[in-house]
Amino acid sequence: MRLACLLRCILAARLIPWAFGLPPPLAPEIIQPFTPIVPPHCTKTAVIKSMLSHASGDDQIRTTQMNIRIGLQNTACFRLENSTNERDSLFADVLNARGQDQGWLHTLTLSQLEHHHPISQQYEFAIPEVRTSCICECDANSDVCSARTYSFTHCAYSNSTQSLQENCFRTFHPNQADTGCAPGSQSKLCCEVNFTPYQNKSYVAMKLEQPTTFVTFDYVAYDYTAGRWIEKDKNTIRVKVDGQTQWLFLDRWRRLELGVSAGGRASHQLETGMYFAPNNANGGMDELRQQTINEINENNFEKLGWFRKDALGHFTIRNGKVKIQRMHLAKVENCKDQKSQSFLDAHHYVDYNDPENPERFALEAAVGRIYPWIRSARVTDGSGRHVVVRHSEGTNVQVALQLHEETYSLSFVHDFSKIDDFSGTVIVDFKSNRFFNLTVYNATGIIHGTVKKTIDKSSIDEFQ
After folding, report:
1. What domains lie within the chain, and their CATH numbers?
2. What is the mean pLDDT of the chain?
3. Where is the signal peptide (predicted)?
4. I need a labelling partner for 51 at 20 to 30 A (CA). Which of 64, 103, 189, 255 fits?
5. Backbone region of residue 313 per phi and psi (left: phi > 0; alpha: psi in -120 to 50; beta: other values)
């Protein structure tokens, strides 16, 4: 008799959940790490509760929805509480098995906010290093330096193949001073202007368009057992939040459903326009930079990007034979001594002939160093079709949580922020910039602080 009762209880516990479509008894299926697990800090969250009704024939289904707003790197925490005490004795064991997760701590963290900017224009360029060599001729009839041999033409090479990373153009400058020549004569100056990529470095210019916004949520369910936390369930969800609300299930039992929407434009965003990134030795690109730069159909020598790579992989100057003749300025100092001065009417180049001040360019810092809200900004895929901007701060994201379980309800919890001690140091660098280095001890939560202009506590003057 006792054996029959025992078998009946076992069958009820194992078969009844299957028969009614219920999940099996919960088990710790997550592999636990060796180091102690500490749940994230639970942020205080304002919750708006709503009740959704759905009629299907004669049946009416009611679903509870919790609406919250969550910021980047913040965590919303909640528990499942039993909302009814009505239990049939026949199913008591089954309900107890399903209720094991009632004390679990469920955490939802907005871990990442990304903007994916499509690239509509792209080309490769370099900073040109310019080497100039000139010859002066006093004889007006000499063909060594003449318009025929030096106007609107390339330099003469010993072979017919131009170097892959070299451009050389000839320029002709007539009617020069007669210094060093016979009185009353006019000298003429012929130059060769050679362009090569400075330090063999190259850059990729790109035009960014309006971005698409993605957010990443980390969901973990914890159980506190035998004096330590254990992970019972976890999931990482990446959602596109532009457009309509996206709905996905959080847990593996498909009871918690997450709805995400942006609720408007993010507080920070890179504007559309031209940017560039240095190529690195590993074949990828470094962090994104913003500076005045030529678009793909421009050829302005006042902007970056006028010395670019062509379809054959050669760095060249578009219409260089004509452009260089116009932008290269030169004058004779003494024709007999072959002394002359040479100038280039352009920006963003290196003058090899001026060792004291060769660099005529300055590159802006990466946008991640200029804008504190950017954690990183770079081209991530090998095809170079998108720039991914990862945020370090951002506006709140609208989140809706639905619990598809009639016997349970959601109860939100939060932790108090605390701090044991802190120390601060004011650091002054070599440019007289002042930085405040704050160190906190045994702290958790969110710290809000202001830097005031005076030690007077009643003062309302603050630095922006």
Report:
1. 1-413 (2.60.98.60), 416-464 (no CATH)
2. 82
3. 1-21
4. 103
5. left
> Residue holding tokens 């639970």?
42
pTM exceeds cut of 0.85: no
Q: For residues 429 and 308, give the distance between their C-alpha atoms in angstroms, rounded to a whole number.
A: 38
